[in-house]
TrEMBL record:
Organism name: Nocardioides luteus
Similarity comment: Belongs to the bacterial solute-binding protein 1 family.
Location in the cell: Cell envelope
PANTHER family: ARABINOSE-BINDING PROTEIN-RELATED, SN-GLYCEROL-3-PHOSPHATE-BINDING PERIPLASMIC PROTEIN UGPB
Keywords: Lipoprotein, Signal, Transport
Protein name, as recorded: Lipoprotein
Signal peptide: 1-31
NCBIfam families (UniProt xref): chitin_NgcE (TIGR03851)
Length: 469
């Protein structure tokens, strides 16, 4: 690969990451949830200065709860160590969970939320329910970094977009995340297979896989909605803004769009032809993924750039994990095959009613240091929003190199959407997608079920809506 990630310029990485999306509040329903503190009113018990921009006390206590997913949580512990160099008497507690909403929503209700939260994973808290209860984080980007440079000047552009709701910047998305289809380059070379670019080519590959007594796909119960992501990303490429915006704006009948139905029919055909490893609805997702990365029972897997790190202890030696863009349906797609969904992800938030918001922000400042960001990319094999932290060799990672190639090939053809994280519908949709991939629900049934979930949110006047244009 001729281009390395650190050489990608601003145009390649993020221009168009939201495809020009503008988020507009349609109601003030969340105002009643509790107004955040005004900038400058919060104090952590210390004296504010360039080296202590949020006024954290020298002996401050910080409670951070981190989603224990593909990236683990040790990288936040590393950042806590960076804070410890400056605040030697600070006590920073970093705890992990896979159940963010289940464990933390009661703490929001009780007025005792943690100081810092990584609001990610299948059980995340929908931003529509907590956005008004969060600190605005503009002051973090305006603060001086641990290296003595304004933090905003060290980051890729437009990274505020995915953390801004109703014109308030309340979530710092730390990881540059792209979505694709992943495969073993060594296995494909061994068999003379070519990675598919269209859904028809994928069906053909599935037939070749069956001839080798292998499957095309695999899934696990907690990650069944990875295939929802694959379908929507593919549809956004095939049908362009018309399809994407209908979904983002919760339009009636959005899931019945011909492009989406065409893709679902292809996926449904794969289910009918037994191209999925059986039993996914009863298999823990990393165990299912190991059937692909370690056992090579399946050829392809749809996921984000976190997949290599997530499966580093369950990947066959010499696997050469490599990513490609998600498929298009036809040669007439509105966006080219090379287009990808790419944006900042892994949302970190600071609740206004936390005991020490200043401490939560200080840990974020440490995470945005060159030292912590480089550690993340080296250990997690994924880029952060901090620029110039990855060397030419990509730390020896085939997956990281392929992410670089995908970003480079996409150029300006990148897009993103926020509505799943905002409305928090993933848990309900998991039930539907597990049934579909198991063959218990056909395309018509899936369409009715997921549209019903959309319509329930759209018709609920208590939920503030995002208007995306």
């Amino acid at each position: 690969m001729s281009q390395q990630l650190h050489r990608l310029d601003r145009r390649t990485l993020l221009r168009g990451s939201l495809a020009g999306a503008a988020l507009v509040s349609l109601s003030g329903a969340l105002a009643a949830c509790g107004a955040p503190g005004s900038d400058g009113e919060k104090s952590g018990g210390g004296t504010k200065s360039a080296s202590n921009p949020f006024g954290m006390a020298e002996d401050g206590t910080v409670d951070a709860v981190i989603f224990d997913g593909g990236y683990g949580y040790d990288y936040v512990e590393f950042a806590a160590g960076v804070v410890g160099k400056e605040f030697k008497d600070a006590d920073i507690k970093v705890s992990a969970t896979t159940k963010i909403a289940t464990e933390l929503q009661p703490r929001f209700v009780g007025g005792t939320p943690p100081d810092l939260i990584d609001n990610s994973g299948a059980d995340l808290i929908g931003f529509s329910s907590i956005a008004a209860q969060l600190e605005e984080l503009d002051d973090v980007f305006e603060a001086e970094s641990y290296e003595g440079t304004k933090i905003a000047d060290t980051l890729y552009p437009n990274v505020k977009s995915t953390g801004t709701y109703s014109d308030r910047f309340v979530a710092i998305n730390y990881v540059m995340t792209l979505y694709g289809v992943w495969y073993s380059a060594s296995l494909f070379k061994e068999n003379g297979w070519t990675p598919p670019k269209t859904w028809d080519e994928a069906l053909e590959l599935g037939a070749k896989a069956k001839a080798k007594k292998k499957y095309l796909w695999v899934w696990g119960k907690e990650a069944a909605t990875y295939y929802r992501t694959l379908v929507i990303d593919s549809a956004a490429k095939e049908g362009g803004d018309e399809v994407r915006l209908a979904l983002e704006n919760l339009e009636k009948g959005a899931w019945s769009h011909p492009v989406i139905q065409g893709i679902l029919e292809k996926l449904g055909e794969m289910v009918k032809q037994d191209m999925f490893v059986p039993g996914g609805a009863g298999t823990q997702f990393t165990a299912a993924q190991a059937k692909w990365s370690n056992d090579q029972q399946a050829l392809l897997y749809p996921s984000g750039g976190w997949i290599e790190n997530e499966m580093k202890d369950a990947t066959k030696e010499g696997f050469e994990m490599t990513g490609i863009p998600e498929f298009v349906l036809s040669a007439d797609s509105k966006l080219p095959y090379e287009a990808i969904r790419a944006a900042a992800g892994e949302a970190f938030i600071v609740p206004s009613k936390a005991k020490n918001p200043a401490g939560g922000k200080e840990v974020l400042r440490a995470m945005l240091s060159k030292e912590a960001a480089t550690n993340f990319s080296k250990t997690k094999l994924a880029p952060t929003i901090v620029k110039d932290t990855i060397p030419d060799d990509g730390f020896g990672s085939a997956a990281l190199k392929s992410q670089s190639a995908m970003l480079d090939a996409a150029g300006e053809n990148t897009f993103n959407f926020q509505f799943y994280d905002y409305y928090g519908t993933n848990a309900d949709e998991l039930v539907v997608w597990n049934s579909f991939l198991s063959g218990d629900l056909d395309v018509k049934g899936l369409t009715k079920a997921v549209q019903g979930i959309f319509d329930k949110v759209a018709d609920d006047s208590s939920i503030e809506k995002l208007k995306v244009s």
